[in-house]
Amino acid sequence: MQKLFEILKKYDYVVLFVLLVVASLVMINRTSYYQSSRMAVWANGIAGGWYKGINGIGGYFGLKAENDRLASENAQLRAHLAESYISYTDSVFTVNDTVYRQRYTYTEARVIKNSWSGQNNYIMIGKGSSHGIEPDMAVISPDGIVGIVVATTSNFSTIMPVLHSDSRNSVKVKRTGISGSLVWDGVDYRYAQVEDVPTTHQFLEGDTIITSGLANDFPEGIPVGYVVSTETLSGSGFFKIKIRLATDFNKLDHVYVIDNMFKKEQEELTTQNQ
User: Fold this and answer.
1) For 244-263, how does the pLDDT look when each residue is reduced to its tens digit (9 = 90+)?
2) With contact defined as beta carbons under 8 Å apart, do 184 and 164 qualify?
């Protein structure tokens, strides 16, 4: 208590000044409607700024949950797209009956580890065999092609992206339907190459490259990239086409793992014909 009196004595002029200012403000607030309203606006401005900051922080921490929710909804919507179904049309006399059966299902997953600057890159996601994910399933992003699942544990999966020297996927030009093979030269994660395309065909800068649907993994029509330039391989009669990838692997956050429900049946038939 003695120390408190010493502090008050030492700063008595300051304390007196503060008390006078407070008293003046109270008197002004009570006697002047204009000044009272201005002070209320000032106080509300300070409070509003404070709560806006608090809500902004809360919104930031809630962003992950919101992204997860949207990714899950997108997976369900993709499963209902026309290309996720296979159509059967049976004609008996004059009766036509068309039945659609689900061909592709989608499981959303969050990327927990990602590389894009090496020769042989890999991606790890936070879902595995306990979530129905198996090796050889195709993986896409909200923007386009990503890669193929190569290994799984109960809760995690490893993906070999198109940014890998062993990656090779069947693609085609959306405008013309001409098919080729998607490969990566290991130089820049933003670009890849399309090979095995005869020079008898013409390409336009900006042409869209999509998945061909010829393999048993990716549905037809998934965006792959956009033509940047073409180069004729000397003496081969084939183009080497540089494309800008639709997926930005440097910003990859959520992916969708695709289950082709007819894949085993297709593979069994292929094996019998070999």
Assistant:
1) 999 999 999 999 999 988 87
2) yes
